[in-house]
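# nightly structure sweep
# worker-07 picked up a monomer target from the shared queue
# config: single-sequence mode, recycle default, output format = structure tokens
# input follows
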Amino acid sequence: MIALTPRAIRIALSIPIAYRRVGDDHWFHSRVMNLSESGILFGPTELQPGAAVEVMVSPPVHIGSLARGKQVCAGQVVRTTHVGAAVRVGTCRFMLDD
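# output follows
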């Protein structure tokens, strides 16, 4: 029998997100559709699967190990849909306001 790993709980939230490909200077703006501690679905975007990205997001609530507050997370696009891109979140760091 194969043991299945439970999928992270996803929360539907319409909050702003900024994203860029790793190495780019320009941030693009979009909207989160849902997020979990392991990933974020957002759009519109023209990102393609496999793209290494950074996302800047401010979750309003604690979601698993994803804390509240403005943070930048490294990730990779794992799939795309007609409405956006799903990014698997790796490491995150908090942004400090000036």
